[in-house]
Structure formats: structure tokens, C-alpha cells
């Protein structure tokens, strides 16, 4: 783990370096806190409040009062204030804060970069640290017996993390960057082992999304290389067999772990069979879409009926408020408490209306389109692929925009796209992922 910083960085960059590097550790610590200390107080939320305040400080310090970023920030605050005035519930403030976290984190890093107070290598170094940290945290949970299974009945293993989907996103992004390292020829044995470290917990997490999106990320690599005519796989002996390496990794894992691996695979399969049977029992209507979306399409259908039955122009533009939607969905499903659709695009629309979608998804798509790689194609590759995976995951599986751990990785992917790499002829460009 390389927490040492080789270059002299600004104070703000050092702070963000540690914020990004320790984002998984914060959620790990929060899981332990809630489980063993106080389930009613979130240590992670307290830390994120401090981070949010620091982000706002950076936004105002490094932007003029008439800049587009300041106007965008105030637009968000003003809109969420209007939403709260219409739907006066404390839960709506709580929900809005989680949404704001991603936006201010991204704006703050953008501001520092434009002020020449932040660099791309700091983002990559924080990713490298998380590549080491995540497997250690999962192993620590297992050894100390403080973790829990991904699902009921002992299916999968997520360590001491609370948010399963947040952990899913983190693993997918880290896997993408571990693959990226294999495309570079230096220290490939070390990076091969790093790929092993991240693949093992991804498999043992035991979710459909972790497996499907891992496969999807490999496909995106082929597509990206084809679009930008990157031929490093064919030209570099150290990486041309990367997909064979991954196959070998999987074989080694299952040979070494033997019976335990068989048990994990069996439990994963049992989980999928159980889910199919459970859905058939509850809905009497089952198809591949319902299976892949884990019945979220049913949640969406039911809340859409409610929304249309209580239709108003105001709600189209500013939504119905998070509390009202979650309370109604829980009531429809016969559950106590609150229930989200778990599909971020639709959650945001029903909570905050079209304006909310524009301020979140519109912002992300705008930054993405504006910064589609036109140079430094290899440097931008993992950020491009990560962004595609995260956005699709947010629409289908949710828990991205409203979950600080996963939204941090969305912010990282956007910042990586926004920042320019080194000069194309600079040797540092090739070595960026070799740290």
C-alpha cells in the first residue's frame, strides 16, 4: 500500500488524496460502528458531512462568484430547498444530503484541477491504495468473524460493509483498474497478483451484478480498443494474453480453495434458485427481466401507478419527495418503514422530478460527452469504462447517487475523464498505472 506522496502537493490535494484513498475504510469502519457500537448513529455520515463542508470551501475558494460552478452549486441548493418546502420532512433533507455529496466532491476536484492544485496521478494513486485496502478489509472481517453474508441464508460474503451495491460498484471499478495494470508491461507479475486479490472477493460477494458487470467490463475493453484502434494487446508480449491470465487466475483460485470454492458456488446457485422461487410465489409472473432486475421492475410499475393516479404538473418538475415515494412503495409492498425502487434514475425522477434528473444525470452525461477521449486514449480507458459501468449500474441496480461509497467512484471516473493526461510523448503516460 503506497500512502506516501512522491510529489509536493497542495494542502487541499493531500486532503482529497486521503479522502479518496480511505473511502472504503470509512464504510468498513462505519459497518463495525453500527454493528457493535451504536446502530442509530452513522459514523460514516458524520465524516461525509465534514468532507462536504471541505468540498464547499474548495468550490468557493477556487471559483469566482460568477463562475458556472458557483451558479450550478446554488441551483442545486435552491432546487432542493424548493423541494423541501413542498415536502416538509426531515428524511428529505437526509436523502438530499446524500445526493449532494457526489456533486460537491466532483465540483471541488474540478475546481482544484483548473487552479493547478490537483493532478491525475493523485486520482490513480488513490485507486491503487483501494486495490490493496479492499481485499485486506474483507479478509480482516472474515478472520475476526465480524462480517456478514451478502444475503439471507448465508449467501455470499460482504465483510463488514453495510451497502452491498456500494461494495459491488467499488469492486467493479477496482477490477477495471486492475485489468488496466495488466495492459502495461512493467511489474506484470506484481499486477497479476493484484488482479487475483480483487477477483477473489468479487467472486465471493456472490451477486449477479458483480459477475455480470465484471464480464461486461471485459467486453467494454475490447470495444474501446477497437474504437480507438489500440493494439497494445497484440504488440506487447506482457499483456497480449491478459484474458488467458484471468482464466488461469480463476482456475488457480478454485484449485487452491477446492471444497470451499465449491461451497461458495453452490450457495450462489442456491441463492438464484431461491430468488426465482420467491419471486414466483410473490408475483405469479416471472421473466428474465424480473430476474435480472431482482423485481425492481415490479417496484417501478407499482410506484408509477401511484404517481399517475396522483399526477400534477408540479410533481413532474420537482417530484413527490423521497419520503412520500418510499413510504407509499413500502405500503404497496406490505412492508414496514420505507422502500426505494433501487433504480437511481427513477428514484431521482420520483423524488425530485425532471429538474432533479437534469441536475444529476444531466450533469454526468454533459461532463462525459464533453470529455470523451480525443487523446491519451490509454490513460482515459479505465475511467471511460468505469463511468459506463457505474451509470448503467445506477439505472438498473441503484445505490450509486444515494450511496457515498459508490458515488465517490462515480466522481473519480468523471474527474479522470475531465483531467488531461500527460503530454502524449511523455514517458509518464505509459507509467501512470505502474505505481
Give a brief description.
By secondary structure, this protein is mainly alpha-helical. It has helices at 11-21, 23-36, 43-61, 68-86, 90-114, 120-143, 164-182, 188-205, 208-227, 232-235, 242-257, 259-283, 288-292, 296-309, 313-318, 322-332, 344-370, 377-396, 404-418, 427-431. Helix 3 packs across helix 5, helix 5 (90-114) packs parallel to helix 19 (404-418) and helix 8 (188-205) packs across helix 11 (242-257).
Keywords:
435 residues, mainly alpha, 20 helices, 73% helix, globular
Description:
- This protein is mainly α and 435 residues long.
- Helix content is 73%, strand content 0%.
- The protein has helices at 11-21, 23-36, 43-61, 68-86, 90-114, 120-143, 164-182, 188-205, 208-227, 232-235, 242-257, 259-283, 288-292, 296-309, 313-318, 322-332, 344-370, 377-396, 404-418, 427-431.
Strand-helix topology:
Layout: H1 11-21, H2 23-36, H3 43-61, H4 68-86, H5 90-114, H6 120-143, H7 164-182, H8 188-205, H9 208-227, H10 232-235, H11 242-257, H12 259-283, H13 288-292, H14 296-309, H15 313-318, H16 322-332, H17 344-370, H18 377-396, H19 404-418, H20 427-431
Helix pairs in contact: 1-6, 2-6, 3-5, 4-5, 4-17, 5-19, 6-7, 6-8, 7-8, 7-9, 7-18, 7-19, 8-11, 9-18, 11-12, 14-16, 16-17, 17-18, 18-19
- Structural class by secondary-structure content: mainly alpha
The overall pLDDT average reads: 82
SSE string, helix = H, strand = E? Answer: HHHHHHHHHHHHHHHHHHHH
Global geometry: globular
Radius of gyration: 22 Å
User: Which regions have little confidence, pLDDT < 50, spanning 5+ residues?
Assistant: 233-240, 422-428
> Helix tally?
20
> Which sheet architecture does the biggest sheet show?
none
Tell me the helix content. over 70%
Q: Could you give the distance between the termini?
A: 10 Å
Amino acid at each position: 500500500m503506497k500512502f506516501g506522496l512522491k510529489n509536493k502537493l497542495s494542502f487541499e490535494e493531500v486532503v482529497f488524496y486521503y479522502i479518496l484513498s480511505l473511502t472504503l475504510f470509512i464504510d468498513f469502519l462505519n459497518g463495525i460502528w453500527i454493528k457493535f457500537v451504536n446502530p442509530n448513529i452513522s459514523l460514516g455520515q458524520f465524516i461525509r458531512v465534514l468532507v462536504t463542508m471541505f468540498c464547499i470551501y474548495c468550490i468557493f475558494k477556487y471559483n469566482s462568484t460568477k463562475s458556472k460552478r458557483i451558479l450550478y452549486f446554488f441551483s442545486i441548493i435552491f432546487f432542493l430547498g424548493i423541494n423541501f418546502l413542498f415536502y416538509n420532512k426531515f428524511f428529505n433533507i437526509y436523502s438530499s444530503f446524500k445526493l449532494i455529496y457526489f456533486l460537491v466532491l466532483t465540483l471541488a476536484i474540478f475546481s482544484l484541477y483548473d487552479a493547478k492544485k490537483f493532478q491525475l496521478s493523485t486520482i490513480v494513486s488513490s485507486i491503487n491504495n483501494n486495490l490493496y485496502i479492499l481485499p485486506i478489509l474483507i479478509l480482516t472481517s472474515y478472520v475476526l468473524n465480524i462480517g456478514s453474508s451478502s444475503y439471507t441464508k448465508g449467501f455470499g460474503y460482504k465483510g463488514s460493509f453495510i451497502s452491498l451495491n456500494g461494495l459491488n460498484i467499488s469492486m467493479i471499478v477496482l477490477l477495471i483498474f486492475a485489468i488496466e495494470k495488466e495492459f502495461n508491461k512493467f511489474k506484470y507479475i506484481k499486477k497479476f497478483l493484484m488482479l487475483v486479490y480483487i477477483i477473489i472477493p468479487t467472486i465471493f460477494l456472490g451477486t449477479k451484478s458483480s459477475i455480470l458487470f465484471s464480464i461486461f467490463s471485459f467486453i467494454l475493453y475490447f470495444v474501446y480498443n477497437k474504437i480507438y484502434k489500440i493494439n497494445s494487446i497484440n504488440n506487447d508480449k506482457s499483456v497480449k494474453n491478459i484474458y488467458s491470465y484471468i482464466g488461469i487466475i480463476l482456475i488457480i483460485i478454485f484449485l487452491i480453495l477446492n471444497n470451499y470454492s465449491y461451497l461458495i458456488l453452490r450457495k450462489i446457485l442456491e441463492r438464484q434458485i431461491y430468488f426465482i422461487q420467491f419471486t414466483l410465489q410473490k408475483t405469479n409472473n416471472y421473466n428474465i427481466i424480473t430476474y435480472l432486475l431482482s423485481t425492481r421492475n415490479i417496484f417501478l410499475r407499482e410506484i408509477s401507478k401511484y404517481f399517475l393516479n396522483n399526477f400534477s404538473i408540479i410533481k413532474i418538475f420537482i417530484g413527490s419527495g423521497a419520503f412520500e415515494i418510499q413510504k407509499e412503495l413500502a405500503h404497496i409492498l406490505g412492508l414496514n418503514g420505507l422502500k426505494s425502487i433501487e433504480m437511481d434514475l427513477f428514484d431521482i425522477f420520483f423524488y425530485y422530478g425532471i429538474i432533479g434528473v437534469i441536475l444529476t444525470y444531466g450533469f454526468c452525461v454533459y461532463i462525459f460527452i464533453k470529455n470523451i477521449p480525443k487523446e491519451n486514449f490509454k490513460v482515459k480507458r479505465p475511467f471511460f469504462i468505469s463511468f459506463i459501468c457505474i451509470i448503467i449500474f445506477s439505472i438498473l441496480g441503484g445505490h450509486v447517487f444515494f450511496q457515498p461509497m459508490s458515488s465517490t467512484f462515480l466522481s473519480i471516473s468523471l474527474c479522470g475523464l475531465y483531467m488531461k493526461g500527460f503530454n502524449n510523448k511523455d514517458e509518464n503516460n505509459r507509467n501512470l498505472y505502474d505505481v
